[in-house]
Design a protein that fits this description.
Elements lengths: L7 E6 L4 H12 L4 E8 L7 E4 L2 E7 L10 E4 L3 H13 L3 E4 L29 E3 L3 H17 L1 E10 L6 H15 L31 H14 L5 E8 L6 E9 L5 H9 L4 E3 L11 H5 L5 E9 L5 E8 L3 H16 L3
Parallel strand pairs: 1-2, 1-5, 2-4, 5-6, 6-7, 8-9, 11-12
Antiparallel strand pairs: 3-4, 8-10, 10-13, 12-13
Helix pairs in contact: 1-8, 3-5, 3-8
């Protein structure tokens, strides 16, 4: 797949979902060389049509589709779908880029952030490349250049994750509960474990034996794999917040060599995919609504020395979890594949 003039047969599995829709728009925006587009979903969504570059494309039933001839398959339909169908697409010759957690921790499946470790995408013996979790995704472009220059020993991170991370049903629940509460009506949580409107929930994914949630441990496992350093200590807390789009992270790092806020800003201004918004004034910092929503970069601000630790640094990291946290990176990985990577 190294011919840059070639077009590709691209399949999107989960095409009618929140991430699948954004994948489609990004393929069009970035003018990816799509020769043939195949949209796949469950039988429930099959038969509908989706617009791509001004043309209507039929959504097909994944269960009955023959993947022969697909060059690149972008999966965003959940772990159970990936587990069953991704190996079938890979066996038929497609490079699978999977957005679920199904293959992320397998030693023979690369876990790749396009700006951080693109070299890893080439080593894909099973024909599968894994997309990291959204909270890890936005953290890596910020921390990778710091780790390479100064060495990171420990990361303390609290995430503030929007409801879109839970899919369309999460968006609908926040909207519904907000409207009901403003109308002085009682609400009943369905998607989330507690009321999400006007509330915070320190619980994402299932609890594990160590007291952390699986969402929190993803930050531990994936950070080490992407940065290729198992010595990095990560202490995460993941919180669901009543924001529609955009995850935020309060990050404290302890480095091997001291890094000043000025040195961090210089590094991060040069980092691909990162935009520094860091002024000591009202509005001189990124927020999920005013900066991240609908945009490609990872934004970083509130860069300051941790005066409680001799080699500590604080950062505030914000990104659109559906866009950069899932869809954009998947398309960027497809571009790597298309260009021979």
């Amino acid at each position: 797949m190294s011919n840059q003039n070639r077009s590709f047969t691209v399949a999107i599995v989960g095409a009618t979902g929140a991430v699948g829709e954004v994948m489609l728009s990004i393929l069009a925006e970035r003018d990816f060389p799509v020769g043939k587009l195949v949209l796949l979903a469950s039988a429930r969504s099959a038969g509908t049509q989706v617009d791509f570059k001004g043309q209507k494309v039929d959504v097909l039933d994944l269960e009955t589709f023959d993947p022969t001839g697909v060059d690149i398959a972008l999966f965003s339909a959940g772990g159970s779908v990936s587990k069953e169908y991704a190996p079938k697409f890979a066996a038929a010759g497609a490079v699978v880029i999977d957005n679920s957690s199904t293959f992320r921790y397998d030693a023979d499946v690369p876990l790749v952030v396009s700006e951080v470790n693109p070299h890893a995408a080439k080593n894909r013996p099973r024909g599968i490349i894994a997309n990291p979790n959204c909270s890890t995704m936005q953290l890596m472009p910020v921390l990778a250049p710091i780790h390479r220059e100064y060495g990171i020993e420990r990361i303390n991170v609290a995430t503030y994750q929007s409801v879109s991370g839970a899919g369309r049903s999460g968006l609908e629940e926040l909207g519904r509960q907000t409207a009901q509460l403003l109308a002085f009506q009682d609400i009943e949580p369905k998607k989330f474990q507690a009321q999400i409107a006007f509330n915070l929930i320190p619980h994402i994914d299932e609890f594990l034996a160590n007291g952390y949630t699986k969402e929190e441990m993803k930050l531990v496992w994936e950070t080490r794999k992407i940065l290729e350093d198992d010595s990095i200590q990560v202490n995460p807390t993941a919180v669901r917040v009543p924001v529609f789009y955009g995850h935020s992270e309060a990050v404290n790092i302890e480095t091997k060599k001291k890094i000043s806020p000025e040195q961090a800003r210089e590094l991060l201004r040069a980092a691909p995919g990162v935009e520094v918004v860091d002024e000591h004034k009202a509005g001189g910092y990124p927020t999920p609504v005013t900066h991240a929503s609908g945009r490609d970069p990872v934004f970083v601000g509130r860069i300051r020395e941790d005066f409680s630790h001799p080699r500590g640094l604080n950062l505030w990291v914000v990104a659109d979890n559906i866009r950069k946290g899932a869809a954009l990176n998947a398309v960027q990985l497809a571009e790597l594949v298309a260009n021979g990577g």
